[in-house]
Amino acid sequence: xxxxxxxxxxxxxxxxxxxxxxxxxxxxxxxxxxxxxxxxxxxxxxxxxxxxxxxxxxxxxxxxxxxxxxxxxxxxxxxxxxxxxxxxxxxxxxxxxxxxxxxxxxxxxxxxxxxxxxxxxxxxxxxxxxxxxxxxxxxxxxxxxxxxxxxxxxxxxxxxxxxxxxxxxxxxxxxxxxxxxxxxxxxxxxxxxxxxxxxxxxxxxxxxxxxxxxxxxxxxxxxxxxxxxxxxxxxxxxxx
Length: 240
What we know:
Residues 1-64 form the HTH gntR-type domain. By secondary structure, the chain is mostly helical.
């Protein structure tokens, strides 16, 4: 129940439905749970920066600038809100800086376990594009890019892997079929550079992969916007 309450309040805050000072009695009555459970749920959200307790003024929803932007749940909640496209753009900018570094470090470290994961994910990406299997593509692509961070040998980069995972699973973009014939080719080139231990080549190949990712997501964004615009145009005009 704790998780359900955190999920409901957190997503409500991200969507702008829950604002201002929170009434613990009202929330407890809504969920049919105790005040202590609500307080525990709010402590979880406070750790994510989404609420703050103040003496005398109670617990208030905080501005978005104070939220833990790299938290996996916060990313997922914001992905359903009005800031989802900005969030995706920001995440791609971070990946453009960090992922090539992760690829370089992975090529130098030569961790056999994570290289094996990378190889399997590369094959699955190839298969997904051939079969035009969106679910397999999302799963394989997520596994691949997480492996870059986790196989880098850097604890700080490894921490970023869950952020990447959350951003790749933003629901809007899972609704759009995005298959580019260059995707398997660029991932194979990056994988081979890492397997060969060619750090500079791995870094350069990773830059190319991220560039393609930005183009793919930009195209998906435009498609979503056009689809919503068409849907709005088909709505009947309000009566006067």
